[in-house]
């Protein structure tokens, strides 16, 4: 789903979910719901945010578009290019580096036939490097959707990808 002039995204269930966040804050502080609004809109917009979508959020939260762009480009969990249905967010930080994240990324690239930042031709998979996800004890690890996958090995990834294909 993406927004057009006639087809807004912040309607129905999406609007209700954002309104719930807005209700947590004083009436004149709607902008406090910016981060959850970005997450919710991204979820229902093929996993990434366009300028049009960010503008719609800015309008809805009564904040300048530039302020929404600043939030959406500062945090790594917001996407601005198409991503796969399954986005493998592989930790690129020190513990995972020491425990073999380079080999894990190389295996994923070979297995999926795409480089970091690319999407497979069927739109199913993409790979992203992310900063420490706070699960260093399970290094090397990655986030897939809302789940963490730890102590990654090529065998584990192969089984996982086969299940998702
Ligand atoms: S360094 Fe990878 S989770 Fe912390």
Order of strands, main sheet, comes to 2-1-3-4
What is the C-level CATH assignment of the largest domain?
Answer: Alpha Beta
Q: What would the principal axes of the Cα set say about the shape? A: elongated
Residue fraction in strands: 5-15%
What's the CATH architecture name of the largest domain? Answer: 3-Layer(aba) Sandwich
Model description:
The protein has helices at 12-22, 34-43, 51-60, 65-74, 94-98, 101-112, 154-164, and strands spanning 86-91, 125-130, 142-144, 147-149. The protein is built from 7 helices and 4 strands, in the order ααααβααβββα. The longest helix has 12 residues, at 101-112. α1 (12-22) runs antiparallel to α2, α2 crosses α3 (51-60) and α3 (51-60) crosses α4. It has 2 domains: 12-74, Orthogonal Bundle (Arc Repressor Mutant, subunit A); 86-164, Glutaredoxin (3-Layer(aba) Sandwich), CATH 3.40.30. Strands 2-1-3-4 form a 4-stranded mixed beta sheet, covered by helices on one side. The two termini are 23 Å apart. 42% of the residues lie in helices and 11% in strands. It binds FE2/S2 (inorganic) cluster. FE2/S2 (inorganic) cluster is lined by residues 91, 93-96, 132-136, 139, 141.
Structure at a glance:
The protein has 165 residues and is α+β, with helices and mostly antiparallel strands.
Features:
alpha+beta; Arc Repressor Mutant, subunit A; Glutaredoxin; 11% strand; binds FE2/S2 (inorganic) cluster
């Amino acid at each position: 789903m993406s927004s057009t002039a006639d087809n807004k995204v912040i309607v129905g269930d999406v609007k209700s979910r954002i309104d719930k966040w807005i209700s947590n804050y004083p009436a004149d502080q709607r902008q406090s719901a910016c981060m959850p609004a970005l997450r919710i809109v991204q979820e229902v917009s093929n996993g990434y945010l366009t300028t049009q979508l960010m503008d719609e959020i800015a309008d809805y939260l009564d904040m300048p578009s530039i302020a929404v762009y600043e939030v959406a480009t500062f945090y790594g969990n917001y996407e601005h290019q198409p991503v796969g249905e399954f986005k493998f967010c592989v930790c690129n930080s020190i513990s995972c580096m020491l425990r073999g994240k380079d080999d894990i990324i190389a295996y994923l690239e070979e297995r999926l036939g795409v480089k970091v930042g690319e999407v497979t031709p069927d739109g199913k998979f993409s790979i992203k490097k992310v900063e420490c996800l706070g699960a260093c004890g399970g290094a090397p690890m990655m986030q897939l959707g809302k789940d963490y996958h730890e102590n990654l090995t090529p065998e584990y990834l192969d089984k996982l990808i086969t299940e998702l294909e």
